[in-house]
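Worked example 2:
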Amino acid sequence: MTIYRLDARPVFPPPSEADPSGLLAIGGDLSSRRLLAAYAAGIFPWYEDPEPILWFSPDPRWLLLPSELHVPRRLTRTQRQARLEVTFDRAFDRVIRGCASAPRADAPGTWITPDMLEAYQELFALGFAHSAEAWQAGELVGGVYGVSLGGAFFGESMFTLRPDASKIALVTLVRQLGAWGFDFLDCQVHTPHLEKLGARAWPRADFLRALEAALRRETRRGPWPSGPARVV
């Protein structure tokens, strides 16, 4: 398989050219223009220092449709007992930094490099990146962030400081996406807890068709209103 090296133009090869791991291209930059072009093409960056920027489009792709959200009974009990408040776009910087510092079970360090932090903060300033935050007694205890284009939300990472806080933030986000008419939340790759919430594998070709349809919708740019913090 050919792995493409990107130049200064914010363009990508077809996702079908990715290798079996999903790796499609290397290089380029993390400018907002390139990142938005990548997401619109079904591609996302995923790498660690000191690697060059790596761009992926895996097959299959894991998606969570709002209509297929499944909330396990245990998580429902946690929702009732923890009395968490969930807001949107109130603490994006703290959420992405919480994700960057969260310990990983599979490897040391983080894939959210300083350049990634800066890039997604810029997307947030432009109204394309968003966060859902879980609070307990005024303390940030978990959250999730991602990118919104048309009727698609591309989930990037989540962190938790209390049991299930990030999952409750995610469930609240998915429910809100459904209320706003979003088509899907892109989970990118498989994780057991996302599968338990209803995510399932889509062949990349089916995902790309769904993405094409989702991008026909108007993008709901931020900041997203939280209103009074909701107790879930």
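The radius of gyration is 17 Å. The helical segments are 32-40, 73-82, 92-101, 114-125, 165-179, 192-196, 204-214.
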